[in-house]
Amino acid sequence: xxxxxxxxxxxxxxxxxxxxxxxxxxxxxxxxxxxxxxxxxxxxxxxxxxxxxxxxxxxxxxxxxxxxxxxxxxxxxxxxxxxxxxxxxxxxxxxxxxxxxxxxxxxxxxxxxx
Length: 114
Description:
The protein is of the alpha+beta class. 23% of the residues lie in helices and 30% in strands. The radius of gyration is 21 Å and the shape is extended.
């Protein structure tokens, strides 16, 4: 990650870095996040100041097992995975589609009938 810091980080981009268990790291793969779900997602814990926080637990169930260029694939093969991501999860194509469908023209009286 020194390379990223030295070359500057793009505004609004975060990096999810995962390091495989063990000491035989083969290298680094810049990839995308694998699609899947977590089971038994969160465990409530207390920090040293007495404040509650939640730790993601359980196990990841990939919906793309064996698909290359994903973090799950990289980790399972001994690589550090680096996934650049943004927080804005807005599905941009739906904005214009909903506007064209007239969603913004619904009146207050029509809303109460929904």
